[in-house]
Specification:
Layout: H1 3-12, E1 28-33, E2 36-41, E3 44-52, H2 55-70, E4 86-90, E5 97-103, E6 121-126, E7 129-133, H3 142-169
Antiparallel strand pairs: 1-2, 2-7, 3-5, 3-6, 4-5
Helix pairs in contact: 1-3
Length: about 170
């Protein structure tokens, strides 16, 4: 499996079932098998930051930076609605760094968003992607992340095995 797909899958293990956030990116469910959903997300705009720290410290540091930006710490002193999910993915180099992102509400275009005043925050566009997702309840911890990452991988492996058996039966 490519490193990009593994990172996306790992990242999606962090999606909580419930959120009090106002905005969640739209997506199309391509397939649903039990708890597993395969979704197609469009191009999305995110505010993101790179943090070199252990898993839990990285999430806390990044959240403060990104929350500062959406709560008015930007060139326009503009408040931007909180979004869900907050995503966290290990950097592809595997050097102990993470990218944490907040999705920007759909009403914004890249040019409409105020510039961050914190040089560690960047606004960027993510290309559309197909993603595997499992939802769960629970807190933000490395242990919880790994439990649900393993669950996601197991469900994906099972779905792939079923698809291969169906294809070979044709």
């Amino acid at each position: 499996m490519s490193i990009r797909i593994r990172l996306i899958i790992s990242l999606l293990a962090l999606l909580p079932i419930e959120s009090l956030a106002i905005y969640k990116p739209e997506y199309l469910v391509l397939e649903k098998t039990g708890e597993l959903e395969i979704r197609r997300y469009p191009t999305l705009i995110v505010a993101r930051t790179r943090v070199e720290a252990d898993f839990e410290d990285a999430g806390n540091l990044a959240f403060r930076r990104l929350a500062g930006h959406i709560f008015g710490g930007n060139s326009g002193k503009q408040k931007i609605s909180m979004t869900a999910p907050v995503t966290m993915a290990p950097e592809s180099t595997g050097e102990g760094a993470y990218w944490i992102s907040f999705f920007m509400p759909a009403e914004y275009q890249l040019a409409d968003l105020p510039e961050p005043t914190d040089s560690m925050v960047e606004i960027t566009r993510l290309p559309g992607a197909k993603m595997a997702v499992v939802a769960y309840k629970g807190g933000w911890s490395e242990g919880n992340y790994h439990v649900h990452e393993e669950r996601l991988m197991t469900l994906l492996a099972g779905a792939l095995a079923v698809a291969l058996m169906q294809k070979s039966a044709l």
